[in-house]
Write a structure and sequence with these properties.
The structure is a single chain. This protein is an alpha+beta fold. It has one domain: Roll (Nuclear Transport Factor 2, Chain: A), CATH 3.10.450. Helices cover 37% and strands 18% of the residues. It has 12 helices and 6 strands. It has helices spanning 3-16, 23-37, 41-44, 69-76, 82-85, 153-171, 183-202, 213-220, 236-243, 250-257, 270-275, 300-305; strands at residues 52-60, 65-67, 94-106, 109-120, 125-137, 143-151. A 6-stranded mixed beta sheet has the order 2-1-6-5-4-3. It starts with a helix and ends in a 22-residue tail after the last helix. 35% of the residues are buried. Bound molecules: 2-acetamido-2-deoxy-beta-D-glucopyranose (NAG) (7 copies).
Length: 327
């Protein structure tokens, strides 16, 4: 039985909701976030303030969970810059524009679905990718939790790779024939070449992870590329993702592209991933925008029904904290 607990939780919500801002402020924050995502250089170079909180915890379904502002700046913004910076074709395009397709503002949580154009300048290609995000904001309107889903990522990948493969082969001085070229082997060779180039340039001294460029190529050219959804696992694709971050912080990122994969490119357990809630600040927003007037004719028993759905219990530190609903 938890009725009294529910009642006290609701009371807490009423009291705490005073910290929430007006919906327009959340919309401005979303717009700012999306604009920065399509122009990530400013965030990465630190010329504009990060839209993320110092203590942000972010999760991206095709990679993994990232803790703290610096890592999240790198993975959300730095990761996507390479296509615009490098002169060779990159597997990950650079966002060039966005539209918001769906948006729910329920302070302090916002759910938004963006359609971003990712551009591949070497082949004059631009392909839309839909990204769904649950975000929670702190009192300074910085993102404190986000849970991002790259919608249809596997389809996106399967669509893009054949379109960029001829150019990739060309850059690697390989001949390309749609009938005879093994696309997987080309992808493995491309991955090895790019990862090893980064490693050789930036992972030096105490950050060195391969004995030489040749040793790196030997390791990487036989390492399976992996499934496109498995960007956080022990494979070539994960190391390819992380190679984009190496130059920002070799000490942190070199292990991720090395033979061990550091703490990023590792075996992961599906059940554990699915059942773990990594956030410190909840992404649950029951009915924050309803006030007592809205529900004045709803009997108390029914009001309690409103929060009866099984929810995750998070123990954390922000205003949105609601604990002990189910004991
Ligand atoms: C790309 O090419 C331009 C012009 O040749 C050069 O200035 C730049 O350094 C190159 N970028 C990389 C990452 O090699
Ligand atoms: C790039 O693609 C766009 C749209 O398909 C086209 O209008 C433009 O002419 C292309 N540019 C080059 C250099 O091929
Ligand atoms: C491809 O050939 C060109 C011209 O010979 C050379 O400059 C370049 O380094 C080669 N690229 C690779 C990846 O071998
Ligand atoms: C690709 O390979 C097939 C099978 O060997 C061959 O018939 C075809 O002519 C090749 N295409 C090109 C463009 O070389
Ligand atoms: C392509 O290469 C991969 C990796 O070496 C191999 O597992 C696969 O069997 C090859 N596919 C074909 C059609 O030869
Ligand atoms: C949520 O709904 C309950 C009744 O269903 C209401 O008593 C409470 O005031 C609402 N919470 C907020 C923050 O408005
Ligand atoms: C202050 C706090 O609780 N920080 C935690 C936030 O979540 C990350 C990831 O789950 C933890 O590592 C932190 O300790």
């Amino acid at each position: 039985m938890h009725a009294p607990i529910v009642a006290s939780v609701l009371l807490q919500l009423v009291v705490l909701s005073s910290a929430y801002k007006q919906p327009i402020e959340y919309m401005d924050a979303i717009s700012n976030f999306a604009t920065l995502f399509t122009n990530p250089t400013a965030v990465v170079e630190g010329t504009v303030a990060s839209p993320l909180s110092e203590d942000v915890v972010g999760r991206i379904d095709v990679t993994t969970t990232f803790v703290g502002q610096e890592l999240n700046n790198e993975y959300l913004f730095g990761l996507f810059m390479e296509s615009a910076l490098e002169n060779t074709t990159q597997l990950i395009g650079t966002p060039s524009s966005f539209v918001v397709q769906s948006l729910v503002v329920e302070p302090p949580v916002v759910v938004v679905s963006f359609v971003n154009e990712l551009s591949y300048p070497t082949v004059n290609l631009s392909v839309p990718l839909q990204i769904d995000m649950f975000m929670a904001f702190d009192d300074d309107m910085k993102v404190i939790s986000y849970d991002a889903i790259l919608r249809r990522w596997d389809e996106f990948f399967n669509y893009v790779i054949p379109l960029i493969s001829p150019q990739i082969a060309d850059e690697l001085n390989e001949t390309f024939n749609f009938t005879t070229t093994n696309a997987t082997e080309l992808l493995m060779y491309k991955t090895a070449t790019d990862v090893c180039a980064m490693s050789t340039q930036y992972c030096t001294g105490s950050n060195q992870v391969y004995a030489s460029n040749d040793a790196c190529m030997e390791f990487m050219t036989v390492l399976p590329f992996g499934e496109s959804w498995a960007g956080g696992m022990d494979n070539g694709w994960c190391r390819y993702i992380h190679k984009n971050m190496v130059k920002y912080d070799p000490y942190v990122h070199c292990p991720h592209i090395g033979p061990t994969g550091g703490d990023m490119c590792i075996a992961r357990d599906y059940i554990q991933i699915t059942e773990t809630v990594p956030f410190n600040s909840t992404l649950l927003a029951y009915n924050a925008s309803y006030n007592a007037l809205d529900v004045k004719n709803v009997p108390t028993a029914n009001q309690e029904e409103l929060v009866k759905v099984d929810t995750e219990i998070l123990y954390m530190t922000t205003v949105a904290f609601v604990s002990g609903i189910y004991d």
